[in-house]
Write a sequence for this structure.
């Protein structure tokens, strides 16, 4: 597997100047899940990403040398009854289709892991659709599929 | 399905006086998952359940007329980039084996739903092991199995 | 688990005199799968069960001391490119709901195993719906869930 | 999806002259499943493919214009208690990695469907590992994943 995954890609926190570049990536991600969010929910998600309040997600951006955003991750550190510190939940992960197969997703996940370590989170996890084969090919390399299934009201 | 599920069972918040009755239920639950938590993690979980800080879980207890606890639920309301309000995550749910098959689990989940509605959570969800057939028999009646699988670092 | 599962139950080949008792069990089994077969398909299934031609299924009956049928199994020995002998496919398995939880299903599967051994089959297998929790509770004790999923045209 | 999938590929029955080209493909397929068969099992599989006895599999070969084999399929028509005719079981399917992503697998499956229609089979099915993402990407286009899981002794 790529030792030098995406050598020209840097992962950094999403910043206020990323607003215009971030929304199309988030919307493409939602499109992938055939999900629709109203503009006010998207605006609110952005406002919270810019907040330093720990109840909200942190945002990570994958940026190429030109400064262009090619990927995003939204990560929530939340409490668990099983942990004195935090669980790290990678809620959203998206890489621009034009920038795929170059290790950008891998770099984003590795940055999530680094942040989880920094905060001494005792678990890092995410969910994906069973048939999201492309993503799972990567996830199988970086993590373990748990035997858990998810129920929703 | 039981219209009068567990008629002698009341669901109420876990209270400070439940400490002695709560720990064996939480420990039995952990045993079921072949999980071990150190005493300080369990103590911390309890302290947080007693806190009103919204970053921590709320606790629900299923209580029979005698006042005896026969079930518990730990519920976290956390932020989501997909929601202006909250997601409701039922992290732990346990019913004393001696009190099973009487609708206690159902009543606890219904109380979680009621609390989720009160807080206008836009999703209520939980995870369970694929082979937890007994629980899934109930969950299939109350919720929908999503196509999501869970990855863990 | 039951060492003396269903002590009053005997497993024997389905015989011509079982015709009247067999059809309701096969039909209940089909009902469980919300499947409908026309009468001529059911008649043909019976005719083939009575045949000794090895291209057809063998039938096993679970019989209580009174002679009453409480369960059936239909088993096909077919060729595989991976085996010089046969694979043993348990296509249909049904136990009368009134006779459940007494080890009848277990005894039927054990009889299938014995027959598979007699014919030196190199694999014995069956399929069940992911959410057939009751049956899977038994199967998990007697066999291993493979990582295979089934596609159908 | 490719209307003219693999225009230079023809599907025809595996023939006696294919022996030398067939074995490496079958062995690569077995390698993929980390399976090992002794030479006598492989020899027997070949002998049976060459037989016209209906208890044995038929073989299909994907051949490029030069006559080179780039894919194989082994198909068993077997009896079912649910069918007056046959079920069509695609046991083995393999495409040379060097010939992938060109529609060869699709053409092989379509040829299986055509043969199943010719024999009036009432079901065509196969199994694949849950994590065989590459193959499942194709299968999802041509077939439906059933809710069935497979148990093996």
């Amino acid at each position: 597997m790529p030792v030098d995954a995406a050598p020209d890609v840097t992962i950094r926190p999403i910043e206020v100047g990323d607003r215009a570049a971030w929304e199309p990536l988030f919307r493409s991600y939602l499109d992938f899940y055939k999900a629709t969010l109203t503009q006010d929910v998207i605006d609110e998600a952005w406002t919270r990403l810019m907040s330093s309040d720990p109840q909200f997600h942190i945002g990570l951006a994958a940026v190429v040398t030109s400064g262009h955003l090619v990927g995003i991750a939204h990560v929530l550190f939340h409490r668990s009854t099983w942990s004195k510190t935090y669980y790290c939940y990678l809620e959203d992960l998206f890489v621009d289709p034009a920038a795929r197969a170059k290790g950008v997703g891998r770099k984003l996940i590795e940055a999530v892991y680094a942040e989880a370590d920094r905060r001494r989170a005792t678990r890092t996890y995410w969910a994906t659709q069973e048939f999201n084969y492309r993503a799972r090919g990567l996830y199988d390399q970086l993590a373990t599929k748990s035997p858990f299934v998810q129920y929703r009201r």
The mean pLDDT of chain B is 95. Chain B touches chain C through seven residues (CB under 8 Å). The radius of gyration of chain B is 15 Å.
